[in-house]
Amino acid sequence: MYPAEPLPTPERARRNLLVGGVVLAVAAVLFVVAVPLGIRGHGVAHLEVVGEAPAHVAAADVPGQPGAVALRTAPVARAASSTTATVELVGESAPRARLVAFRDGTRVGTGDRIVLDRHDAAEGVDVLVEPREGGADDEWDGSVTVRLTVSQGFLPDTDELDLTLPPS
To answer: Which of 12, 41, 97, 142 sits at 20 to 30 Å (Cα–Cα) from 71?
Structure first.
């Protein structure tokens, strides 16, 4: 038979317990941070300013369009069935503007927050940011912040753009 293994000393047992605790803490941090980042993908949320409004947006009946800035959400590759995206105006100047979103030439939503489903997130949508009518204020410089949030895992991914709306 094999000889019995000697019992560890109290000091060695404490050290083993401490090392095990540190290893467990590192594993927990990696699980909480690294695994969700891997599941959601990195940098899937992306907003970009489009030089001109796409033809289907320019042809749509959108009041106040001359003072609008056209944006596009980048398509989300490998969008899961639970993937959603939100485009919203944030910050103190958010009430001074509104969003109008389009998909395939059709108005998807309007307001200060637009929720996009999996299909919209996967394809990408065109968004106009325009000043609200009747909100003219000499102190407002036309700046507004637009945030895109894509949720498809434990942690959402966001992208923000600071815009200055041209005078209408």
So the answer is: 41
Q: What is the pLDDT of residues 29-81, one digit of tens each?
A: 877 765 555 554 456 778 888 865 555 554 445 444 567 888 988 888 777 77
E strands along 11-76, which residues? 47-49, 69-73
pLDDT confidence of residue 31: 74
47 backbone dihedrals φ, ψ, rounded to 5°: -110, 140
Contact 88, 114 (CB under 8 A): yes
Architecture of domain 47-164: Sandwich (2.60)
Question: Tokens representing 68?
Answer: 């609008």
Contact 165, 68 (CB under 8 A): yes
The alpha carbon dihedral of 141, 168, 158, 74 has a sign of negative
∠ CA 66-146-97, nearest 5°, is: 45
Rounded CA-CA distance 130/70 in Å is 9
Instruction: Judge whether 106 and 153 are in contact, CB under 8 Å.
Output: no
